[in-house]
C-alpha cells in the first residue's frame, strides 16, 4: 500500500503514526487504531534501539495488504548490537512493553536480519470495506 522513509528521530514516530492511519483509511481499512499503535511501537524501537536513531540514520515503514483481511507492517532499521525480544513482564518497569503489545495485537510477528539492518514485521487482523463492483 505504501512505503515511507524517515530520518530516525523521535519525530518520525509521530509522523509514522499519522501516515499509517491515513494510508490504511485511504485504502478502505476500518478500525485502524491497533495497526497505528503497532507501527508506532515498532518505529519507536527502530529509532531507540538501532543505528536508525544515530546521525543520518533512517527508518523505513512499509504497509502491505494481505489475503484474509490482514495488514502487514514492516519496519526496517539500520541494525546494531541488539536483537528484538519480548521482555519479562515486571509490574514496576517503565519500559519493555512495546513488543509484548505488538505480539498481542498481531496474529504473527517476527524479525529478519537484512544485509544492513533488520526488518521487524507484524501481521494485523483488520476489516476492509466491501469492494464495489466496477459499473
Ligand atoms: N528493532 C530492534 N532492533 C534491535 N533490538 C530491538 C529492536 N526492537 C526492540 N529491540 C530490543 O527488544 C527489547 C524489547 O523491546 P520493547 O519494545 O518490548 O521494549 P522497549 O523498547 O525497551 O520499551 P518500551 O517499548 O516499553 O518503551 C528492547 O529493549 C531492545 O533491546
Ligand atoms: Mg519499544
Automatic annotation (TrEMBL):
Could you list this entry's UniProt keywords, alphabetically sorted.
Answer: ATP-binding, Kinase, Nucleotide-binding, Serine/threonine-protein kinase, Transferase
Entry's Gene Ontology molecular function annotations: ATP binding; protein serine/threonine kinase activity
Q: Which residues form the Histidine kinase/HSP90-like ATPase domain?
A: 7-120
Family matches, as CDD domains? HATPase_RsbW-like
- Which SUPFAM superfamilies does UniProt cross-reference here? ATPase domain of HSP90 chaperone/DNA topoisomerase II/histidine kinase
Highest taxon of source:
Bacteria
Q: Which Pfam families match?
A: HATPase_c_2
- Leader peptide range in chain numbering: none
Please tell me whether the keyword Nucleotide-binding is annotated for this protein.
yes
**InterPro entries per the UniProt record, alphabetical:** Anti-sigma-factor_SerPK, HATPase_C_sf, HATPase_dom
Which PANTHER family does the UniProt record give? ANTI-SIGMA-F FACTOR RSBW, ANTI-SIGMA-F FACTOR RSBW-RELATED
State the name under which the record lists this protein.
ATP-binding protein
Species, as recorded: Spongiactinospora rosea
Q: What is the lineage of its organism?
A: Bacteria, Bacillati, Actinomycetota, Actinomycetes, Streptosporangiales
Amino acid at each position: 500500500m505504501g512505503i515511507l522513509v524517515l530520518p530516525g528521530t523521535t519525530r518520525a514516530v509521530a509522523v509514522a503514526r499519522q501516515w499509517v492511519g491515513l494510508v490504511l483509511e485511504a485504502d478502505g481499512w476500518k478500525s485502524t487504531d491497533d495497526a497505528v499503535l503497532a507501527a508506532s511501537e515498532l518505529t519507536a524501537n527502530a529509532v531507540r534501539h538501532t543505528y536508525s536513531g544515530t546521525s543520518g540514520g533512517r527508518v523505513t515503514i512499509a504497509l502491505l495488504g494481505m489475503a484474509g483481511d490482514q495488514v502487514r507492517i514492516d519496519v526496517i532499521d539500520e541494525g546494531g548490537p541488539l536483537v528484538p525480544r519480548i521482555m519479562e513482564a515486571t509490574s514496576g518497569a517503565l519500559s519493555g512493553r512495546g513488543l509484548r503489545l505488538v505480539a498481542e495485537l498481531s496474529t504473527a510477528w517476527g524479525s529478519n536480519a537484512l544485509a544492513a539492518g533488520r526488518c521487524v514485521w507484524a501481521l494485523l487482523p483488520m476489516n476492509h470495506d466491501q469492494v464495489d463492483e466496477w459499473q
